Structure formats: structure tokens, C-alpha cells
């Protein structure tokens, strides 16, 4: 039996993982622009059914849902064979889980991506595929000589600190999650090279924003906010001086849409997609900002470093911004204030002040 509802027309845009955080924001944007969307998601991540219901309420006539697993070859073929374009976001998303069940992580992230590529090669070779990859493909960057500054860790090399990590950085897969996403990343690029498929890869830093289901294992900005708003303590693994470039989901989604529209120019290429040096923030600085927004201190505990954790990761976003025509991203203070408001925190004065 077909998993694809017929209601939305013959060639919808397929978003795997479309009930998830980034996927539902992407679906909202594309459906809002008038495109028919097929969301393919097993709903295995707790809470994503709320995103599905939100989308259904906003775009009933434009979005159809196939509740299925990407490991189900027949269902995936049914969904992808006639898609106008595929955004592949479904994944096992947590490094921690990948360390517990690496084979499952591989099956979902790597093997299913290869299967999706094969389906396109055989049945739908003109459909662009945009893949959600990760900055974890660059490993833990342990070779960088990092110093501790007032703002957190930074490479001693000032030029690198200013520019961020570029796509020319050698790949170095760490942890099963890094390996499975990295393998998928490379297959997606190679299917452009070997078979002429139209594919591109976005290697994302930390994305945050509305409808994020933050947990301790994935989605740390939302997780920190939710804990702090509830008055619960939060744990910083390591010393909290780790620095990340964070990007609001509105900007991430704009990059996905642009990658689709410009697929002929960007096919076969990978781009780093993050907040860049202007949105680099330490975990400690983020918690201080949250405390400012809430008008009360945040209760913090410390625990051991987690495996594969980078002391500093900031993406060099110049290639993505040029190739995809992206504007300057939303500043992290303002974006986090927006997310706090979305979660129901009373932060109006601070929100006004946030830049
Ligand atoms: N959020 C980030 O900061 C970030 C950073 C780097 C890369 N990524 C990548 O971006 C993508 C989306 O991430 P997100 O933050 O929206 O995660 P998410 O967990 O909110 O969304 C993933 C979705 O995939 C679905 N899914 C999981 N396993 C599935 C399976 N076997 N079959 C079908 N559906 C399945 C889940 O139910 C969920 O709705 C993932 O591929 C992730 O690896 C995210």
C-alpha cells in the first residue's frame, strides 16, 4: 500500500524528518510559499507529533504526512520516486545514542541515505537532494592550539579565530554519529560526481529556534532555556568555556531553500552553515544571557567532558553566504531572546534591549 497520500498533487517536495525541529520550520516556510509538501517521518523523536499537528493546522491542503521509517525501503521509494526535490533531514541525531547503539545509528544515518540516493538514481535522477550534515565531520579539532580567553576557548591562530573553520578543513570522523553522518555526507557528494545527481550538503553548526525539542543529548540552546525557565539546574559538560557558533533556524531554513533554488550552481559541493564568528558564544556566556533575560541566576552544575566534544567550533560561513546569497544572520542574543519568549518566559524588557 502506498504511504503517499494523493491529496497534495503528483510531485511534492519531500522532507524526510519533516516533523523534527529544522524540518518543520522548513516545511512551514515552503508550504507558506505555496509548495506542496510531503513529510516523511517515523515520529520516533518524542514530542515531534506536536510539530506535525502544528503544520497540519497551518497548511492542511498543502502538507501530507507519511509516517514511516527511512529504513523501510518500499515506503521510501514510494515517497521519493516522484518528488520534485528531496530535503533529507531524518536522522538519529544524538552523539550519546550513537555510542550506545552504533549499528542502529549507522542503519538510519548512513545506510538509509545511500538507499535514498539509489532510489533517486534509478527512479528520479533529476530531483535535487539537499542533505543535512554536521560540523562533526571535522572531528574534535584537537590539533588546534586553543587558548582560554575571556570569551571562552579560541584558536591561538588569530586568522583562524576570525574566519572560522572552512570547508577545506580535512574530514576527521569521531564517534559513531560523526562516522554515520560523515559517510552519508560523502555519499551524497559522490552521487553528484559519479552519477550526475543534483546534490548538495549543508554541514551545520548548532541550530536553535522555535519548535526545537531540546534535550541534554541534542538541542542544547533550547534545553538550557527550558531548564532555566523551569527553575531547574543545568549541567555543563566540560568547563563551559566551549565556544559554538549558533544559528537561528530562520536563517538555516533560508539556506536550505536557497540551496534548492540554486542547485545547478552548488551541486556536488558542501557548505559550512552556522552563525559564523559574529555568533560565536561560550556555553557560560549563553547561560549568563539567559539569566539576564529571565532576571534571575541560572543554577549550573559541571560534569566531565563528553566524547568528541570540540573546545571551539566556529564555521567559516563565507562560502555558503556567497554561493547561496544569504543575508547576515539574526544576532544570537536577539535569537535566544525570541526563543525564550516562544517558550513563554516573561522577558519583555530584556528582549527589547537585546541586540
Ligand atoms: N539541530 C542541529 O543543531 C543540527 C546540527 C547539525 C546537524 N543536524 C542534522 O539536521 C537534521 C535535523 O535535525 P533536527 O535538529 O531537526 O532533529 P530532530 O530530531 O528534531 O528531527 C529529526 C526528525 O527525524 C525523525 N526520524 C528520526 N529517525 C527516523 C527514522 N529512522 N525514520 C524516519 N524519521 C526519523 C524524527 O522523528 C524527527 O522528527 C538531522 O539530520 C541532524 O543530524 C542538526
Would you kindly provide a written description of the structure presented here, covering whatever features stand out?
- With 355 residues, this protein is α/β, with parallel strands linked by helices.
- Strand 6 and strand 7 form a beta hairpin.
- 42% of the residues lie in helices and 18% in strands.
- Helix 8 packs parallel to helix 11.
- The chain has a single domain, classed as NAD(P)-binding Rossmann-like Domain (Rossmann fold), CATH 3.40.50.720.
- The strands form four sheets. It has a seven-stranded parallel sheet with strand order 3-2-1-4-5-8-12, with helices on both faces.
- The N and C termini lie far apart (52 Å).
- The longest helix has 22 residues.
- It contains 14 helices and 15 strands.
- It is globular.
- The structure holds nicotinamide-adenine-dinucleotide.
- The site of nicotinamide-adenine-dinucleotide has 28 residues, from helix 1, strand 5 and strand 9.
- Nicotinamide-adenine-dinucleotide (NAD) binds next to helix 1, strand 5 and strand 9.
Summary?
It is built from 14 helices and 15 strands. It is of the alpha/beta class.
Task: Please describe the structure with a list of short key phrases separated by commas or semicolons.
seven-stranded parallel sheet, binds nicotinamide-adenine-dinucleotide, alpha/beta, 18% strand, Rossmann fold, 355 residues, 14 helices, single chain, four-stranded mixed sheet, globular, 15 strands
Amino acid at each position: 500500500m502506498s504511504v503517499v497520500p494523493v491529496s497534495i498533487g503528483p510531485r511534492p517536495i519531500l522532507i524526510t524528518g519533516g516533523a523534527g525541529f529544522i524540518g518543520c520550520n522548513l516545511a512551514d516556510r515552503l508550504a507558506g510559499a505555496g509548495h506542496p509538501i510531503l513529510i516523511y517521518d517515523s515520529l520516533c523523536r518524542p514530542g515531534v507529533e506536536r510539530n506535525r499537528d502544528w503544520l497540519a493546522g497551518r497548511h492542511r491542503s498543502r502538507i501530507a504526512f507519511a509516517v514511516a521509517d527511512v529504513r523501510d525501503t518500499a515506503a521510501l521509494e514510494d515517497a521519493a520516486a516522484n518528488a520534485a526535490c528531496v530535503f533529507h533531514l531524518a536522522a538519529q541525531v544524538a552523539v550519546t545514542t550513537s555510542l550506545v547503539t552504533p549499528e542502529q545509528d549507522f542503519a538510519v544515518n548512513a545506510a538509509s541515505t545511500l538507499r535514498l540516493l539509489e532510489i533517486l538514481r534509478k527512479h528520479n535522477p533529476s530531483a535535487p537532494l539537499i542533505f543535512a550534515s554536521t560540523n562533526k565531520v571535522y572531528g574534535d579539532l584537537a590539533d588546534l592550539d586553543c587558548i582560554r580567553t575571556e570569551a571562552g576557548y579560541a584558536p591561538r591562530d588569530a586568522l583562524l579565530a576570525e574566519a572560522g573553520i572552512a570547508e577545506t578543513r580535512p574530514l576527521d570522523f569521531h564517534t559513531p554519529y560523526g562516522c554515520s553522518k560523515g559517510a552519508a555526507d560523502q555519499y551524497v557528494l559522490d552521487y553528484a560526481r559519479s552519477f550526475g545527481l543534483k546534490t548538495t550538503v549543508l554541514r551545520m553548526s548548532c541550530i536553535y529556534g522555535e519548535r526545537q525539542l531540546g534535550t541534554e543529548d541534542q538541542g542544547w540552546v533550547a534545553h538550557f532555556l527550558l531548564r532555566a525557565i523551569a527553575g531547574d539546574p543545568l549541567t555543563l559538560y566540560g568547563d563551559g568555556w566551549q565556544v559554538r557558533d549558533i544559528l537561528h533556524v530562520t536563517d538555516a531554513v533560508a539556506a536550505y531553500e536557497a540551496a534548492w533554488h540554486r542547485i545547478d550552481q552548488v551541486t556536488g559541493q558542501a557548505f559550512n552553515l552556522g552563525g559564523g564568528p559574529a555568533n560565536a558564544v561560550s556555553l557560560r556566556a549563553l547561560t549568563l544571557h539567559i539569566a539576564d533575560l529571565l532576571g534571575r541566576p541560572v543554577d549550573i552544575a559541571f560534569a566531565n567532558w563528553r566524547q568528541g566534544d570540540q573546545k571551539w567550533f566556529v564555521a567559516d560561513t563565507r562560502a555558503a553566504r556567497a554561493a547561496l546569497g544569504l543575508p547576515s544572520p539574526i544576532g544570537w542574543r536577539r535569537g535566544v531572546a525570541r526563543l525564550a519568549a516562544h517558550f513563554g518566559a516573561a522577558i519583555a524588557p530584556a528582549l527589547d534591549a537585546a541586540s
